[in-house]
Write a structure and sequence with these properties.
7-stranded mixed sheet, binds magnesium ion, 14% strand, binds adenosine-5'-triphosphate
Length: 260
Amino acid sequence: MVKILAVANQKGGVGKTTTTVNLAASLAAMKQRVLLIDLDPQGNATMGSGIDKRELPVTVYHILLGSKQLKENRLRSEVGKYDILPANRELAGAEVELVDLQQRETRLKEALQPVASEYDYILIDCPPALNLLTLNGLCAAQSVMIPMQCEYYALEGLSDLVNTIRKVRAHLNPDLEIEGLLRTMFDPRNTLAQQVSDQLQQHFGKKVYRTVIPRNVRLAEAPSYGVPALHHDKLSKGTQAYLALAGELLNNAAQSAQNR
Ligand SMILES: Nc1ncnc2c1ncn2[C@@H]1O[C@H](COP(=O)(O)OP(=O)(O)OP(=O)(O)O)[C@@H](O)[C@H]1O
Ligand SMILES: [Mg+2]
């Protein structure tokens, strides 16, 4: 059964795209069939997967507006070994154009249906806003992965996101769950980061992934080569952390299948 995960946090620069790209590559390295959906007009996940966002005839924009089908317009990240539906700045217009369309929040969900069974994981990289694009991500997903930096205002921002998830659950996608909270760019020597991390665990308990993503320059460099970090420096701490996260996800999935 496919698992569809939205990687979301309305706060900018917390590591959503880094997580989506590196988790996709890590799951693919573990023989999982992965589709990455870039739902951000910045197109960072597209570029980070080795695909030039400037020269794309079809992007997620056309899929959301219904002028093209996903099945014929997926691309392959050869380096990452996963499929991708790319995005570029054209997608910024979708927000306005979608407003007048019917079922505007569930366009991505509908588009995914014909291909979903071909994958083990579908990862959706959401933009840094609680807008219609992110809503499409949350409606298409079964669960949300929330990357966050352990900073002073992080918990405050989290409550907005958790409220949005509650509303989506109430009105649009009753099955939506929080898959987990991921601590990113973590520096264990930073006392405040440690305190916020403790608070996070008090509030969210088991929902906080055991895997912590450290601050690691290899993760920041890899996109400039158009590759996931796994294919830039396999032994770096950042690469190893995302492999561990993929392992944790697979373990959790195996356990919940056993309990069923
Ligand atoms: N663990 C890490 N260590 C070092 N740098 C990181 C790490 N994770 C992300 N970065 C860097 O931090 C910046 C923001 O990361 P990223 O683009 O993944 O965040 P984002 O949440 O997707 O941002 P946006 O909200 O703009 O979409 C990037 O320059 C990225 O390379
Ligand atoms: Mg991003």
